[in-house]
Batch of 4 targets.
Target 1
Amino acid sequence: MVKLPAMNSTLAPTAVSGQAASSGVGSASPTFSPLYQQIKALILQSLQSGEWKPGELIPSEVELAVRYKVSQGTVRKAIDELSAENLVVRRQGKGTFVATHHEARVQFRFLKLMPDAGEAHQPENRIVEVKRLRGPAEVARVLDIKAGDSVIYIRRVQYFDGVPTIQEEIWLPGAIFKGLTAERLAEYKGPMYGLFETEFGTPMIRATEKLKAVAADEGAAATLNVPVGMPVLGVERVAYTYGDRPVELRRAIYVTSAHHYHNELS
């Protein structure tokens, strides 16, 4: 497998202030955060604590306004931002729900490889290897853990219409993903991030990716059934959960002879 450059930066968590829900948020804050940002931070606290779980309906804007002792417009602005960040999903006539990786629209947020022809669809997965080991220094640095701390290493191949198209190496913090085994991954039929969310309480909130054109080495060529030296796309991802905590390092090789990397910018 071609070794990609390690991520050289991470985004620091944004500091927001907010009083406890029971005391309101109207008093002055040393950071002078806009009121809607304080409400957003309080809603995020409830999401992170699991008060409202993925896929569940959250209280209405009116109920949240009463709870936090602010106007409904302030709550709406906070929820607008959470919706834009894909943390909640508005459904007309039903309310606002916590985003979940089990929804197709969320799954394709993190799967950017699209077919040149035909409809986008989920790949088939083959788990090649899962093992627990001591984290190499470069992996530990990205995951913000100590070198030598336990990590879960996963190697898998993804197939589109029976053709091996993506080879991945994934590192996860061992302390968070205790009990994750090859058998559990193989028997789970949904997306991997759905398993992380449901069984380990760790939804992936956002990710950064680095893309680079590389040449397939012998290992990748054998796995993906392409010639050694063939141009392929190398992708390195760092995924984050609540609190902007890095919880996954993923390095992948994409074969793009029948696919392309698709991203929408706004």
Note: Helices lie at 35-49, 61-68, 72-84, 104-110, 137-143, 182-187, 192-200, 218-224.
Target 2
Amino acid sequence: MINAFRMLHSLLDRCSQALCVVCRLIVIVCLFGIVLDLGAGCILRYTIKYVPSWYEELAKFFLIWLAFAGSVVAMDKNGHISLDIFGACSFKFRVAMRLVAQVLLVFTAVMVCNYGWRFAQGGWLGVFSCMDFMHLFYGYVSVPVCFFGVGLIGVRNIMAGLIELFTGEALKADAAAA
């Protein structure tokens, strides 16, 4: 049974690592996009006194993707703000509390994916205010896509917690992250 959990954890770990590579690339592209877009907007404003009407909307679009893709990367690296209030408790109790938190996180991620996808589908009906060539869907779809990644990492962490709970030892990758 433990070997099945280890194999599933390994599969989920490989999938989440591949997703994190994609999210890191999205973060890099969005960061450079924001810098280039706003930099060009400032230069154009003060040199030729003309600013394209869509430059601010494009920066907002990049910022939305940057935030949600960055949350997947932070989730993978345990980079979100956390408070360890169970530090003095036993190892199994701490693992059980982390499992409860991960189950709640996965439940929330599933809900956000579901409702986010419905919301994104409604984005086909609208366009960004100054970029009438770009549907709102392309911005809204970042929510379910990135929360799918957060949920996948949460399921991986649940598998790791179950292995830790049954064997009584921390996994190497999780022990290094903690």
Note: Residues 2-177 form one domain.
Target 3
Amino acid sequence: MPKAESQRTALAQQIGADGLHLLHALEQAEAPAELSDMASVQLLRQVWQQYYDLSGGKAKWRAGPQESSGEGIIRSPYDPEARTGKKRETTWFGYKVPLTETCALETTEDAQARAMPQLIVQVQTTVANVQDVDMTAVIQEDLAKRDLLPEDQIVDTGYVDAALLVGSQQKHGIRLVGPVLADNSWQAKEGRGFDVAHFQIDWQHQQAICPPGHMSSRWSLAGERMEVVFPPEICARCPVRSACTRSQTTGRVLHLRPQAAHEALQARRQAQETPAFRQAYATRAGIEGTLSQAVRGMGIRRARYDGLPKVQVQHILTAVAINLVRIDAVLTNTPRGKTRQSNFTRLALQPALQEQAAA
């Protein structure tokens, strides 16, 4: 691959021209009809449509790929199903795999009985750009089909939203345990303004009451949410206006989710700040150990095959291997490994150093 940008562009242009020439040749009457219908030729045509501007009968390299027919951007002709994913600063190409495992140690009444192993009971493989929150209901449906629904499902923040807090309970009787995202309004971020939690909502009469005690003037449906508007003349002379709205022409406007979702979201935001919730949520740390075991011990982050179905088989076999290791550990009385500590942490935890720090 050339190092200079101009040389790379020229190479891309030449490749584009060669590929377009081949596609045009396959469209000629004398070309065998079955060749044009081959999956590899269809894939070539789709890639060229995304990465080249084909107007005017020429292939011009685009600045960036352009999605066609809602099928998603193809990042590799060797695995057209794979997609690019990003989480915080990490970017990868391929797939992702949410794992579900049991998280309670079940014991018999016999004090000498061994604890049951924590086993992976559900594996979902998706392309990398699927959002975690879109998989929560899918996971629950699969658990329901296998009669494995839990009372509590402890999940990462990415798997929780207001609708799922309500839907999980109503449809499956599951208490979805996980912190929700914080209110991102400027009032909540600054910690001195009136965010939506400060307003009293009268769902029956479709009115909202602001902290100073004024009522809203309009309640209407805006998409999937309720738009609640306060009268501008009241807000204009309100002494705490600066803590409520920055608009100079309108009154305060709230956008509310449906009642059940709104109340569930507000309740969770309050509950997740309590020690009881933090203690219950700490159980989820076990799945982080499972992911570490799958990554470090089983190489689950490296797909050995192309295509979603084959990668899913790899993920399922990896989960089976982890379960076998855990079952063997119980049968052989092998103690669980302890969380690794860095040399600095072990040094800091030395009793002598702690005594000196206390003194």
Note: The chain has three domains: 5-61, 83-180+275-331, 186-257.
Target 4
Amino acid sequence: MAKTNDFTKIMQDMMSAFPVDSRGMQDAFRTSAALGERMTRVAVEAAEKSTEITAKWTKDTLGRIHAMAKAKDEPAEYTKAVTDFASASAEMAAENMAAFAEDVARRSNGSVQVQVFPAEQLAKAGENFPGVARGAFEAAAAVNFQWGTTIPEMNAPTIPYLFTDLPRIRKFLGGSEAAKFLEGLLERRQVRNLMWLYTTRQSIFTSNRKPIVALDDFRGLKIRGLNPLTDHALTAVGAAPSAMPGPEVPPALQSGVLDAGLTDVSAAVSRRFYEIQRYGTVAPYFAVISHVYVNPRWWNGLRAEQRQAIEAAARKAEQDQIGVTEETAAAAVGELRAKGMTIHEQTPEEAETWKARMQPPVIEAFLRLAPENGRRILDLMQAL
């Protein structure tokens, strides 16, 4: 996957909770005698749902899928992804990946086996994309914005209020032209998309002085920023965004280095924001989509029935993840309230007001970042 040096360190902190390391695909990934007993590795550093969702997963980080040929077992290694904003229950997402592994085995009559492993055992995050493209290992995973300037169009879902309606997300996952367009851009980079996993669409703006409800409430606030692209929205309303790794945010809020926080609702629970922040405004600020991609040559070498089994399991995993993400976000809001935070859930009218001020500067910056195809992907996503 692409290096994230064009994004702030926060983005690297952000993606480390959704462990989706998997290894496997013994037998099945053997396509001919040429592959022999060679084990294949499949990195699936699937963007975790917020590097903060649960202590366990936020430390494990994204995982990967190690695919190997029949007969042997060799440790798979995979990278750690970055995202504090890809939350929604890393734990439940990991369960979904485990279900995916079982489904693949069942549909392939045992010819394909997938095992799940956490942490950076196979490659560093920045090595995933080039490794898959070269064929050093067969697959990896990332969250959309990790592609940075390598495939800038992949940043589109993170534009405020562009892609946060659940019906629109469902349409995207249903073989939409928008998804196909992004998949085409991935293919230009010599990787083939296998599946999209909806990760989050619910953010929370936290504070200790007063609720952040009106746009004027942002004025003068030192707030935790996310990346150079989305931070244009915060500066547009008078805030002063500051990039900061997830673990450093609570101490910064306590000490006054930051006046306000911004994270995924599930991350707010795992980071125990309820102990240091009185108020929280939950908003469909932007979406994060994780995805798994594979080496095309390896994929084309599989038997047709193996590809069909994996694709069928992937389609099911995509749909299952929708429920996982929505249920986890709803539970997180309830838990924050139960722990004593005063939670305001943004109304549709408030969302439109925020969108009118915060979205335009981000779109402008996005089009500068993706001059060739930026307008095309925006049109396709708005048409969903």
Note: The radius of gyration is 20 Å.
